[in-house]
Specification:
elongated; 4-stranded antiparallel β-sheet; mainly beta; 10 strands; 6-stranded antiparallel β-sheet; 2 helices
């Protein structure tokens, strides 16, 4: 792997370490684990938005009941869709792709996707806007 200026090493390899920079960039914020869990913003009965405290990135959890369909609206950025549970079809325009646990798809910007669930379907979409 090529060397990089933007890597701070933690001392797990014999490479150069900058301990002071590593210590300075850590956040010493403590509390119960329940205080660290993100609560979703429910966009609908199907979609829940997990919006971390960074501007560019979020995750949408989509839960579609068996036999139902649900649209995932278009956004300006790309997405990576990962199916966690269930089966069905991902419809993009006239194209249809199978969905099942472990299936992963790249979704281009400005693309509307439709989930058609054969069985109860849970998918996570990581997205950049």
């Amino acid at each position: 792997m090529a060397t990089s200026d933007n890597v701070v090493r933690a001392g797990l390899t014999p490479k150069q370490r900058d301990v002071q920079v590593l210590v300075d960039m850590l956040t010493y914020d403590y509390g119960a684990p329940s205080h660290k869990l993100m609560q979703p913003e429910h966009k609908s009965s199907v979609h829940a938005l997990y919006n971390p405290p960074i501007d560019e990135f979020s995750v949408v959890r989509s839960s579609v009941n068996a036999g139902e369909r649900a649209d995932l609206e278009a956004i300006d950025g790309p997405r990576i869709l990962l199916v966690a549970e269930g089966s069905g079809t991902l419809c993009v325009g006239t194209d249809e792709m199978p969905l099942g646990p472990g299936f992963v798809y790249f979704v281009c910007p400005s693309t509307v996707c439709t989930f058609a669930a054969d069985t109860a379907l849970v998918a996570y979409t990581a997205q950049c806007e």
